[in-house]
Specification:
Blueprint (H helix, E strand, L loop, with lengths): L6 E6 L14 H19 L2 H8 L1 E12 L8 E10 L4 E10 L2 E14 L10 H12 L1
Antiparallel strand pairs: 1-3, 2-5, 3-4, 4-5
Length: about 140
């Protein structure tokens, strides 16, 4: 069954993710996005590794843009939401939103490019990805 789009994954801020002021260190937001993408791939394909094995295609980050609107702190419950869409023959762009208690604290985009898993050369998105993202968007 395809994952619903947008796809939301809950996370709780851990103590080690905070700076000495008790605020989430900015680089950890990228980790939160990466964890959510991994969970999206798990929901769509069983796991990221299964997707790569089935298609011979890997995805690499080509562009990442984040806009910080507020800070998260230790033990905050966050919801990381991704809304992926094929934006070219070989690219998937996901809208990113991170919310805390219904308040948007971060927004942005991340663009992944499909590459041959061995040669690391750009390739078109495989049918499995196109079908899953299309079915998820329709759900």
């Amino acid at each position: 069954m395809p994952a619903a789009v947008p796809f939301t994954h809950p996370l709780r801020v851990r103590y080690n993710e905070c700076d000495p002021q008790g605020v989430v260190f900015n680089a950890n937001y990228v980790v939160y996005v990466d964890v959510t993408i991994t969970e999206l791939w798990r929901a769509l394909f069983g796991s990221y590794q299964r997707f790569v094995e089935a298609t011979g295609v890997d995805v690499v980050v080509a562009d990442l843009q984040l806009r910080f609107r507020a800070s998260a702190r230790f033990d905050d419950e966050l919801e990381v939401t991704l809304t992926p869409a094929l934006t070219s023959a070989s690219s998937v762009t996901s809208q990113i939103a991170i919310d805390r208690s219904g308040t948007r604290i971060l927004e942005g985009t991340i663009r992944h490019v499909c590459v041959d898993a061995r040669a690391l050369t750009k390739v078109p998105a495989p049918a499995l990805m196109r079908d899953a993202l299309g079915a998820a968007a329709a759900a």
